[in-house]
Design a protein that fits this description.
Radius of gyration: 18 Å
Number of helices: 10
Number of strands: 8
Helix content: 40-55%
Strand content: 5-15%
Largest sheet: 8 strands, parallel
Distance between the termini: 15 Å
Structural class: alpha/beta
Amino acid sequence: MVRIALDPTPYNDTVPLLEFPDLVARLGYEYVQLTPSPDFGRHFHHPKVDSAMIAALKKRARDAGVTITSVLPVQRFGGPEEHQWQAAVFHTTRYIRIAAELEAPIVNTEFSGRPERAEESEYAFYRSMEQLLPVLEREGVTLNFDPHPDDFVEDGLEAWRILRGLNSDRVGFVYVAAHTFHYGDRAATLLPMVGDRLGAVYAADSFDHRRSHGLRYISNPPGNTARVHQHLDIGDGDVDWEELFGTLRAIGYLDREDALIVSNVFAEDENADESAHFQLSRLRELIMYV
């Protein structure tokens, strides 16, 4: 059974963490992924929840009929400066224990690091993981990575090679549809390689920045290294959703009991409720009919 979870980021400034389960249930979702927020923990910082708050959150989720599937901290695993990856290890060790305590044994995250210092960043990533793999094994948690635009690795295939080099089934891949064109637009060939190590799929649309001679959208000055992408409602961008879901079906992902698809639209805060309803309906259609 495919679990469709909501990323509640659009509500971070208006809804406290303990009210997320009620919000998610009101929007029609049965699952939620906890993402960086003031109450839970911000990007690159230590988590801010204690055991009492975790217990309260679990109770609120049970009462609302909502399951917490996973947590998403963003840390500098590939930070080329030693203090960056050491901080990532320190903070993520706590996040892993939180995921275990929440009975949501999946941590989804990003590589981080710097593309202009890719060699140093890759080394930092492997040093980070050398310390975190025993923690993952001990806690029974899986850590999945998305090669985010502007990480030290952005291409989807190269990211998979780096993860494969860890030689651990406690580490997997997050396929973020909104990053498709930075990955190399290779879902049909990449996902079969990843296979059972595909840990989650994020559903939001984006424009293909490579179209129209690289002028699909413009950032100035010309030639700058900024990465631009969007997290739009499905259908508002250039992602080939029939290809993506056809590939997910062909590799058996949609038949897995642990399959996780996260709606993560960030461009519709003023219409967040309507966007969440639309995403849930459209994802159900894609799962059923593609």
